[in-house]
Design brief:
CATH architecture of the domain at 77-203: Orthogonal Bundle
Domain RGS: 86-202
Radius of gyration: 33 Å
CATH topology of the domain at 77-203: Regulator of G-protein Signalling 4, domain 2
Number of strands: 0
Keywords: Signal transduction inhibitor
Helix content: 55-70%
Organism: Oreocharis arfaki
Order of helices and strands: HHHHHHHHHH
CATH superfamily of the domain at 77-203: Regulator of G-protein Signalling 4, domain 2
Protein name: RGS18 protein
Largest sheet: none
Oligomer: single chain
InterPro entries: RGS, RGS_sf, RGS_subdom1/3, RGS_subdomain_2
């Protein structure tokens, strides 16, 4: 190491090592390499944390975690119970439709409800000028062969629907919509009613929140002396 006097000619030769300015300079020389290493370690930790967060997010999205299906804190148990009365009752309420759509995403069959919603919107068209572009979009998205979100239709229904696309009417997709509706009602709807997210709503539980609360104060060993554990709270 070079002589500090050469690096810092302003230092007093006779100064004691206990002088404040000597301590400051000495500390600065020792700490400089340590400070330089901190950013690298911090950046590595940040990168690792970010990667873990991204991994958890995509994993949860891919698997469709049940706890994330129904963020419906405003839905009362009484409302959720009504969804079980009929499939039509479920779809007639926005919260029910949203919850069912999220459920279908976990089963990778959301194209069915998306097609049903598109047909409902199509029937609300106020002019023939709106029907043609909407009909073409629905057909290309859900019905034609190898469509990106092709729904499961029998040959006859698909054939009749295809023939009516050239001159669409408000009733053009009625047969196809009814087929998909029955499919969801008989297949997906019963499974939805048996799913954990729906049962949690009926029981008034919010799957996004923990059922246990942490205590707000710290306890010491003395706090528990002479106290017998009460397991009934669990």
């Amino acid at each position: 190491m070079e002589n500090p006097l050469l690096l810092f000619p302003q230092l007093n030769i006779s100064a004691s090592k206990d002088k404040p300015y000597y301590k400051v300079m000495k500390s600065a020389i020792k700490e400089e390499p340590h400070k330089a290493s901190k950013p690298g370690a911090k950046q590595k930790r940040n990168r690792l944390s970010l990667l873990l967060q991204k991994s958890e997010f995509h994993e949860g999205d891919r698997l469709g975690k049940p706890g994330n299906l129904t963020k419906a804190a405003s839905v009362s148990p009484e409302e959720a119970v009504k969804w079980g009365e009929s499939f039509d009752k479920l779809l007639s309420e926005k919260a029910g439709l949203d919850a069912f759509t999220k459920f279908l995403k976990t089963e990778f069959s959301e194209e069915n409800i998306e097609f049903w919603i598109a047909c409902e919107d199509y029937k609300k068209s106020k002019s023939t000028h709106e029907l043609l572009p909407k009909a073409k979009t629905i057909f290309e998205t859900f019905i034609q062969k190898d469509a990106p979100k092709e729904v499961n239709l029998d040959f006859h229904t698909k054939e009749v629907t295809s023939q009516n696309i050239g001159q669409p009417l408000p009733t053009t997709f009625d047969a196809a919509q009814s087929t998909v509706y029955r499919l969801m009602e008989q297949d997906s709807y019963p499974r939805f009613l048996r799913s954990d997210p729906y049962l949690n709503l009926v029981k008034g539980r919010n799957p996004g929140r923990p059922t246990l609360r942490r205590r707000s104060r710290s306890f010491t060993v003395n706090d528990f002396q002479g106290v017998r554990p009460d397991f009934t709270v669990w």
